[in-house]
């Protein structure tokens, strides 16, 4: 039986190819022709900046384009044969580079400089532009709904909601997560927090699902304003947008807003703890380096450690759907 591909499958294929072409452009495979190298040595030979280097090289491992043994990277048999520029009889890199044109130019620039191209200043600028018009806000939120539905369904069925009464979804977009949860658990009520321009789309989406009496919108900036108090606080596709200091700020505020005995749920595309299997998570982290300076994805182990630093206990990880997982901690 053939499993149908989704639009997100095609999106990740595009970004995986972009990562591969960046490695060709930066001559990563040629640099490794003589012997395995550490990340620092490989950066010296390829000109890759140290900030995105680990995500880049580990993404190539997860894509089966490199091998990693301890702290040293090496080519696979195939990439060593066909992507080493010194093997002129078999080298295919020029073919890929010409065929795809400037496909990887922005990523290569970011990998070389460690900075997002075009002078992008950070997530704040990204969200200022995204929320500047009703049309751009709606398009962004519809995309977030499409990316969140599978995980929202898994959270709605895989978390012990019977123990709780209230839910707050931070950075809620249209409200896909609380809608899915409330549809399955009629005893719950919820609030979605997002920037003020999100209100109209959120309220339309919620009303279309008949949940306006149980699910309300709270406008606010989650760095400037308190998070709404609730038994469960959800941070979905949020933390990876921000640098480490901001990640800690959000987790601290979530702990403060939770009721005693409450739970925080962090979900997104977690990188596997060995950093060699979840190619989507590693490629997504490169996308964050590219589009949202300071942002990066992280392992579930990283997330559990951060939660424990802020007083959460009994943390655990649970796979949701595809490349996504959630980390749960209790106050």
Please provide a written account of the structure.
By secondary structure, this protein is an alpha/beta fold. It is built from 14 helices and ten strands. A seven-stranded mixed beta sheet has the order 6-5-4-7-8-10-9, sandwiched between helices. A three-stranded antiparallel beta sheet has the order 1-3-2. Helix 1 crosses helix 7 (105-113), helix 1 packs across helix 13 (279-291) and helix 9 (134-158) packs parallel to helix 10. It is elongated. The mean pLDDT is 90. InterPro entries: COMT-like, COMT_C, COMT_dimerisation, SAM-dependent_MTases_sf, WH-like_DNA-bd_sf, WH_DNA-bd_sf. It holds the Pfam family Methyltransf_2.
Brief description of this entry?
The protein is α/β, with parallel strands linked by helices and 331 residues long. The protein has 14 helices and ten strands. It folds into two domains: 7-115, Orthogonal Bundle (Arc Repressor Mutant, subunit A); 123-278 and 287-330, Rossmann fold.
List keywords for this structure.
331 residues, methyltransferase, three-stranded antiparallel β-sheet, COMT-like, Arc Repressor Mutant, subunit A
Query: How would a textbook summarize the main sheet?
Result: 7 strands, mixed
Counted beta strands: 10
Shape: elongated
Major sheet strand order: 6-5-4-7-8-10-9
Fraction in beta strands: 15-25%
**Helical stretch count?**
14
SS-based structural class? alpha/beta
Q: What's the architecture of the largest domain, going by CATH?
A: 3-Layer(aba) Sandwich
The N- and C-terminal alpha carbons lie at a distance of 45 Å
Order of helices and strands: HHEHHEEHHHHHEHEHEEHEHHEE
């Amino acid at each position: 039986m053939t499993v149908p591909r989704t639009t997100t499958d095609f999106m990740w294929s595009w970004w995986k190819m972009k990562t591969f072409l960046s490695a060709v452009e930066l001559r990563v495979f040629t640099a490794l022709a003589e012997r395995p190298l550490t990340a620092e040595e490989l950066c010296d030979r390829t000109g890759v900046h140290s900030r995105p280097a680990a995500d880049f090289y580990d993404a190539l491992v997860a894509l089966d384009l490199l091998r990693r043994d301890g702290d040293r990277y090496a080519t696979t048999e195939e990439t060593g044969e066909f992507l080493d520029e010194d093997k002129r009889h078999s080298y295919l890199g020029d073919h890929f580079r010409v065929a795809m044109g400037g496909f990887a130019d922005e990523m290569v620039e970011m990998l070389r400089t460690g900075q997002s191209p075009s002078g992008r200043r950070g997530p704040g600028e990204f969200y200022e532009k995204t929320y500047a018009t009703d049309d751009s806000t709606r398009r962004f939120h519809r995309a977030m709904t499409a990316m969140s539905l599978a995980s929202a369904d898994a959270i709605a069925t895989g978390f012990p909601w019977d123990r709780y009464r209230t839910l707050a979804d931070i950075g809620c977009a249209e409200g896909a997560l609380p809608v899915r949860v409330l549809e399955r658990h009629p005893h719950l009520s919820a609030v979605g927090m997002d920037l003020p321009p999100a209100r109209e789309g959120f309220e339309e989406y919620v009303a279309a699902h008949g949940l306006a009496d149980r699910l309300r919108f709270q406008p606010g900036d989650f760095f400037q304003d308190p998070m709404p108090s609730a038994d469960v606080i959800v941070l979905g596709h949020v933390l990876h947008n921000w640098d480490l200091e901001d990640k800690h700020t959000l987790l601290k505020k979530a702990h403060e807003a939770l009721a005693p005995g409450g739970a925080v749920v962090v979900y997104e595309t977690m990188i596997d703890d060995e950093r060699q299997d979840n190619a989507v998570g590693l490629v997504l982290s490169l996308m964050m380096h590219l589009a949202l300076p300071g942002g990066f994805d992280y392992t579930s182990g990283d997330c559990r450690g951060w939660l424990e630093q802020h007083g959460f206990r009994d943390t655990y990880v649970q796979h949701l759907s595809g490349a996504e997982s959630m980390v749960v901690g209790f106050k």
